[in-house]
Specification:
alpha/beta; 6-stranded mixed β-sheet; globular
């Protein structure tokens, strides 16, 4: 769910007053036994702890920094990473500002990418409870019922990704972590590039999904949706603790508790991870390896969930003879 936030800028309503996100850390709501089960399971997952790593092969040195796309002031670039950004030959983001501008422009110019004016509408394709959650959440954001009903499922899910408090922080001039990384790089005169090659490819991850997968994505988002800032609080605090994977599993456990359908939630989470994390990692590796052959020191700033696991960037680099070590960041 970390990648859908790319379209969060579409939600920046200036009328919202800034308010820090408040809510419950979902990790604290689970029983000690449930949390221990999660941590025991994750102990088998490569690189499941930490948000910063170094990968070295010969003369090539990569610094990988896991980010979260929220506007919360508690999320910042650690001093150790800032120093590496300033000394880097190249800083790679998921997508450059130019690609993101083209992404938003494509959505603005072709409404069919985000709206289905001729289809049956979301109301008829969602369960009554799901439709009620979606409608209530978007009415609060000032979006009319008729507009909600005509949204493509992926776009409706995108609308829910940021709580009103985080949207307000954006409208108040807040910057996401990726933007802060980019600003540091440009101030230092480092080259800046993007792992997503163009806006069309980026759009394909969302609008190119089959309708059934888009609906599953929306149902997953609705299953874990809260009207307060608990989703942001959980994400930020788990990132600060260096255990974003634990936060992901806590969200999964919460979705199971709310829906009562563990099999469906597992399917939704696994599919989301496969499409938006695993598939992108494999494409990114091709470009990353090419750059590593030509540029000595690269800083890679991507969503933190792209780093851990057998299909994470760290494991993929390790399989290509990079030596990986976790960076212990100063408080």
């Amino acid at each position: 769910m970390l990648i859908i936030a790319l379209v969060a800028a579409l939600l920046a309503f200036p009328s919202l007053a800034y308010a820090a996100c408040e809510g419950q850390d979902w990790r604290a709501q689970l029983t000690p036994e449930a949390m221990q089960e999660i941590r025991d399971r994750l102990a088998q997952v490569p690189f499941h702890r930490g948000i910063a790593f170094e990968a070295v092969r010969g003369e090539s040195r990569l610094t990988l920094f896991g980010t979260v796309r929220v506007y919360d002031p508690g999320v910042h670039v650690p001093d150790d990473i800032a120093a590496r950004i300033r000394s880097a030959d190249l800083v790679l983001l998921e997508a450059t500002p130019e690609v993101m501008t083209a992404f938003r422009q494509a959505l603005a110019e072709d409404y069919s990418l985000s709206f289905d004016v001729d289809g049956p509408g979301l109301r008829s394709r969602l369960a009554p409870r799901e439709w009620a959650i979606l409608l209530r959440a978007l009415l609060v954001r000032g979006i009319e019922t008729e507009v909600v009903e005509r949204m493509r499922p992926w776009f409706a899910a995108a609308m829910l990704e940021h709580a009103p408090c985080d949207v307000a922080a954006s409208a108040g001039g807040g910057k996401i972590l990726d933007d802060r990384v980019e600003a540091l790089a440009r101030e230092a005169g480092a080259a800046v590039g993007g792992l997503d090659e163009d806006a069309g490819r980026l759009l394909s991850y969302f609008s190119g999904l089959p309708e059934g997968e888009q609906l599953d994505l929306l149902r997953l988002t609705l299953a874990s949706h809260t009207s307060d800032g608990s989703q942001i609080v959980t994400l930020v605090r788990s990132w600060q603790d260096g255990e974003v994977a634990v936060g992901w599993e806590a969200a999964r456990a919460r979705a199971v508790a709310l829906t009562g359908d563990g099999a469906a939630v597992k399917e939704w989470f696994d599919r989301l991870h496969q499409v938006l994390v695993v598939a992108r990692n494999r494409e990114w590796m091709r470009r990353l390896l090419e750059w590593s052959e030509a540029v000595p020191h690269i800083v890679v700033a991507v969503g933190a969930m792209h780093l851990p696991g057998e299909d994470g960037l760290l494991r993929l680099l390790e399989r290509r003879s990079f030596a990986i070590r976790r960076l212990i960041l100063a408080p």
